[in-house]
Known about the structure:
The chain has 258 residues and is mainly α.
Amino acid sequence: MDNGCHCTADTDRLSNPILYNILSQMDNSKASQNNFNYNSVPHRCNCELRRTVCLKRPAEICKEASAVLVKTIHFMKNLPAFNQLPPNDQLSLLRSCWAPLFILGLVQEHVDFEVMDTPADSMLKKILLNRQESPEMEREQPTMAGVSKLKSCLKKFWSLDLSPKEYAYLKGTTIFNPDVPDLKAALFVEGLQQEAQHALSEVVQLIQPGPQERFARILLTASTLQSITPSLITELFFRPVIGQADLLELLVDMLFCR
C-alpha cells in the first residue's frame, strides 16, 4: 500500500484538471524544479503549508482585531467624500476594501499574533454534534500558507515605518478604487483616488526628499494587500467572536448606522 503524501497532487487535480494533466506529463526532475518553494525552506510537498491553523491567544488577539475593525469602519464613515457617494457605491467599495483596510489597521496598531495547529475533533464528537454537515466544515479554514503571507505583508509594512499621514492617504487610495465593478460614480471615485495618491506623494516627499523611492516602495507593498483573502481575515480573527454570523452584514450595519 502506498503511504506517500498525495495532498498536493490530489488538490491540484481537483482544482485545475488541465494544469494537473500538463504537469503529470512532465518528468520528475522538471516537476521538482517547478514546485520549488520560494520561501527558501525545502519541502517535498505542501502538507506543512496546507495545514489548518488558529490563533494561539484568541481572546486577546480577537479583542485587538475587533478594535481595529471598528476604527476601520469609523475611518470610512468620517470621510466626507465617501458619504457623498451613492449608497450602492459605498456598499461596493466596502465589500472591496474592508480587508485591505483592516490589514493596514493591524500594521498601524502593531498587532502581532502567533498561530497553532487547529485541534482536530474526535469522530465521536463529530457524530454527536452532527458536524459533518455544519456550515463551518464548508468554510475555507485558515492555513499556514495564508497566515505566512499575511505575516510577511505586515513585516514589509512595519519596515517602512509609515507616518500617520502616510497611513491616512494610503487608506484613501485603497478605499477609492475605480476598478470596483458597477460603480455609478466611477469617475468621481477615480478622481478621489488620484487626489489621495498625489497627497501621499507630497507627504512622502516631505519625509524623504529626492527620488521617489519611498513612494514606489509604499505602493509596491500596498499591492500585496490584495493577495490576502477576506475569508482568511474573517475565519482567523472574527469567527471565534461572531460565530455563524455574516461579517460583511455586520460591517454594513456598522457603516450605515448613523
